[in-house]
Amino acid sequence: MGFWKKIFGKKPDKSPYLPTPEDPLDISFAKNFTSNGGLFLYNESIEKVFYNFNEICKENKWNFEEIICLNQKLSSLFKIPFIENNSGKLTHYKSLLINCEYLISNTGKILLSSKQIKHFKLNDLPKTILVYGKLNQLVKDVSQGMTQLKNKYPNKIPTNITTLNTNKDKKAGSIKTNSKNIYLLLEDI
User: Is residue 108 within 8 Å of residue 186, measured between CB atoms?
Assistant: First the structure.
């Protein structure tokens, strides 16, 4: 038996005064995102992203004409229709493929701006949204996301900044007009 143990007794395994250790950003985001009903697919390569994208389409019985994109570059990459729609609603399509600004770790939500959804309100978009994100887009909270957004666009901050909520988001309240089914295709870069 050690000297200190004789004097002070058994040492506690964990001090009640130490802060609880936080999960890394990616683990925290994944836990929060999936607990709110988001569907999360981690991809080690762009080939795996394409494979999972095709599997999602098969599972939901979507053809590529039923999925739209508001970004020309992303549309070409995934070989789906590019819509340059400036009015109306897009709810008659099965799904929308977008990228994102940032992935908010502490809430599991996805930060979007006019760069992804143009001028559309979330309830004007299809019920299912496929988000293509990258691991380096993880931030701790909305505040850090907004700071990063200001640094990313120093000359003109985008408009229509919002967070994307899942259908099962308990914090969204009883009226869930802007909640969506969300698939996140996260690529490790």
Answer: no
Q: Return the DSSP state at 11.
A: P
pLDDT in tens, 11-44: 656 667 777 778 899 999 999 999 999 999 999 9
Q: Which of 163, 152, 182 is nearest to 106 (CA)?
A: 163
Residues facing residue 131 across a β-bridge = 98, 184
Helix, strand and coil in the chain, % to nearest 5: 35, 25, 40
User: Do 78 and 50 meet the contact criterion of CB atoms below 8 Å apart?
Assistant: yes
Q: Residue 74, class by beta-carbon neighbours within 10 Å (0-12 exposed, 13-18 middle, 19+ buried)? A: middle
Residue found by looking up tokens 């979330």 in the block: 122
pTM of the model: 0.84
- Segment holding 132, helix H or strand E: strand 128-134
